[in-house]
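Incident review: delayed structure delivery

Summary: a single-chain prediction request sat in the queue longer than the usual turnaround. Root cause was a stuck worker, restarted by the on-call engineer. No data loss occurred. The affected request and its eventual output are reproduced below so the record is complete for anyone auditing the incident later.

Affected input:
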Amino acid sequence: MPPRAVLFDFDGLIVDTEMPEYLAWQALYARHGLTFPMASWLKNVGRNDRPFDPFGPFRGDDPASVDAVQAEWRALYDSIEPSYMVPLPGVVPLLRRLRERGWRLAIGSSSRHARVASMVERLGLAGQFGAIAGGDEVPLAKPAPDVYLLAARRLEVPPDVCTVLEDSENGVRAAKAAGMRCIAVPSALTRSLDFSAADAVLDGLEHVTFEVLVAPEDGSGYTGPSSGGRR
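Output delivered after worker restart:
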């Protein structure tokens, strides 16, 4: 039996990059007398092809106006982001327990490989993962399975021994398309999404146990914590 592996999403699961991005857009739209459409923005979460264009209301005849709005958004984001740059609750203890058991660990993210690697260093998690697969390294973004299949190949394990931890609907769909078990751990922003395709839905990484990581046919039959279970 090949060693088991856990593949982590990154944004919204290991570190909350999603909330400062959302708050910056919300503040920017408010400055311009607009309401930011959160439901439309959530379509972008977990993928890199961005079906919703937040710059849409600012696109006009003058390309420089988009550049100015982008600079305005960046300034807002940079002022908000530092307070969120810590591993989310449960990340560090879970990584330690998995490594002690000899499980292989990787990140499969829609973000660029270089960005993820840099932020892993910044979070003090360098050396915790055996591989990183980025959205810029595969032909198709989540919900296609490409990035998770690449992460498994880099760990040298087959898909059927991998369990994916995800906070987005698109990520869950990608994991299941890859033939992997998937545990959804929704973030504060993604809780309204449809996680019915997940094998289990948990309220946080602190609820992730070895029991829930293995497939039901391996003897767990676990569907989530008593506070929620599958939902």
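Verification: The beta strands are 5-8, 104-108, 131-133, 162-166, 181-184, 200-201.
Action items: add queue-age alerting; document worker restart procedure.
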